[in-house]
């Protein structure tokens, strides 16, 4: 995908590069009309068309040309005629904003623009109180713990809140950029969407557990697992792509994660009977999916997957879920996707549960969460969904499965702390958020 290509490019400022490339692609049809109307490629025959789009985007729609040398001089030489052509286009289309020149499918959805910037405090290195104090010293205003989604929607400027579901999650306005912030570059905070924090939070392994992160890269969920484990225990993290494994290794090192074995390996080839996995009691499974729930802040959405593509993905997801359930000591598994499609979510869970009979069962994940699974089968409401409109997050699906034990009490809806929305550091139940501890940054 585009993001992987950019982030593996070796360019020192990948976030800015990704924004520039993706936005240029989003405005591609508008830029082509501008180039034709201004006859730029006819005047500059040595200028590659794709580079021309990037230059014109940055000149007219972006933050101004940051490049130097002859390309910057070339673009500025034609600035007046390009601006004149853009003005004519707006008159023809009877619009006043650049965004209004885009086709509906290319525009950023209102829901995407409302999703806040979520910041997970990395409790391996710091605590919520220290991070809050740090941002206060940087001129931010802390408004305390949020009470509702509406409060998150109302955030603006340099204000931030503590999330009302997850005890180590801070919430900033949507366009807050923290990629260059010292806390981020030092690994004290992780920029991670709220929905993406749910799988590790709901898996809730106690310190000392052996855990598998089956499809781990880029590593945000792995680092979250390590924080929940307090770096006590063992995490086995798998990904088949060597570049993604390298990226994950960098992220985990920066986050202070220890006790994690990275393996460049397809999880489907891992032998559940290997003695090294004999103590694995928890598995986090977030397999490849259509990504239809990912709300972009800039580039346009990819085309909806075909029925054939969805069936192929669902087939893979069923295989990998079946494989994960075959680990002999497994007690608890979280299956999650960033997909909105029933084929990849409820249908996968239903089929696999049927295949395993009474060996595993769904437990109610996060009872206070407002969005539940689609009514595809009896008990699907135990699953949860997330969406920009209802939960102010990316689109997500989570199912929690536990091994059935004869004579056991009904399974709890771990983590217990999540049911009552505790303050950070409360909760002593297994899976509750770790208590805050003061550390110097």
From TrEMBL:
A GO molecular function held by the record: RNA binding
Keyword Repressor: no
Active site per database record: 338 (nucleophile)
Gene Ontology biological process: rRNA base methylation
Domain SAM-dependent MTase RsmB/NOP-type, first and last residues per copy: 107-404
Annotated binding of S-adenosyl-L-methionine, by residue: 215-221, 239, 266, 286
Chief place of localization: nucleus
Region of interest (Disordered), ranges: 411-441
Domain of life: Eukaryota
Any single Gene Ontology cellular-component annotation: nucleolus
Keyword Methyltransferase recorded: yes
Keywords assigned: Acetylation, Coiled coil, Methyltransferase, Nucleus, Phosphoprotein, RNA-binding, rRNA processing, S-adenosyl-L-methionine, Transferase
Cellular location(s): Nucleus, Nucleolus
Coiled-coil boundaries: 72-99
Similarity comment: family membership: Belongs to the class I-like SAM-binding methyltransferase superfamily. RsmB/NOP family.
Protein name (database record): 28S rRNA (cytosine-C(5))-methyltransferase
Species per Swiss-Prot/TrEMBL record: Oriolus oriolus
Lineage: Eukaryota, Metazoa, Chordata, Craniata, Vertebrata
């Amino acid at each position: 995908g585009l993001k992987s290509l950019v982030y593996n490019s070796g360019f020192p400022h990948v976030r800015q590069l990704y924004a520039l490339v993706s936005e240029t692609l989003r405005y591609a049809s508008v830029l082509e009309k501008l180039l034709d109307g201004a006859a730029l490629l006819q005047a500059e025959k040595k200028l590659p068309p794709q580079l021309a789009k990037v230059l014109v985007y940055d000149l007219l729609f972006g933050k101004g040309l940051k490049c130097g040398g002859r390309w910057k001089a070339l673009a500025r030489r034609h600035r007046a005629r390009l601006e004149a052509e853009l003005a004519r286009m707006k008159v023809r289309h009877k619009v006043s904003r650049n965004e209004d020149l885009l086709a509906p499918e290319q525009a950023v959805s209102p829901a995407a623009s409302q999703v806040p910037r979520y910041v997970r405090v990395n409790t391996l290195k710091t605590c919520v109180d220290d991070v809050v104090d740090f941002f206060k010293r940087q001129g931010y205003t802390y408004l305390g713990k949020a009470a509702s989604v509406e409060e998150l929607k109302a955030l603006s400027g340099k204000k931030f809140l503590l999330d009302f579901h997850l005890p180590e999650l801070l919430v900033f306005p949507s366009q807050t950029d923290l990629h260059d912030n010292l806390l981020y570059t030092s690994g004290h905070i992780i920029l991670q969407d709220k929905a993406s924090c749910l799988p590790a939070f709901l898996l809730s392994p106690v310190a000392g557990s052996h855990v598998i992160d089956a499809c781990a890269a880029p590593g945000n969920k792995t680092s979250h697992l390590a924080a929940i484990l307090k770096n006590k225990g063992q995490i086995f993290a798998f990904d088949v792509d060597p570049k993604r494994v390298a990226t994950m290794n960098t992220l985990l090192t920066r986050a202070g994660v220890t006790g994690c074995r990275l393996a460049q390996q397809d999880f489907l080839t891992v032998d559940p009977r290997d003695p090294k996995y004999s103590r694995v009691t928890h598995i986090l499974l977030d397999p490849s999916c259509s990504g239809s729930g990912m709300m972009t802040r800039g580039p346009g959405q990819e085309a909806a997957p075909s029925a054939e593509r969805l069936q192929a993905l669902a087939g893979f997801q069923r295989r990998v879920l079946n494989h994960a359930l075959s680990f002999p000591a497994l007690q608890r598994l979280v299956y999650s996707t960033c997909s909105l499609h029933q084929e990849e979510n409820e249908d996968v869970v239903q089929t696999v549960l049927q295949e395993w009979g009474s060996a595993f069962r769904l437990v109610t994940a996060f009872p206070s969460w407002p969005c539940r699974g689609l009514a595809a089968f009896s008990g699907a409401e135990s699953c949860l969904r997330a969406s920009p409109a209802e939960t102010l997050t990316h689109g997500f699906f989570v199912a929690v499965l536990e091994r059935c034990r004869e004579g056991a009490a009904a399974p709890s809806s771990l983590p217990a702390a999540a049911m009552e929305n505790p303050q950070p550091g409360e909760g002593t139940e297994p899976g509750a958020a770790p208590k805050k501890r003061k550390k110097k940054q």
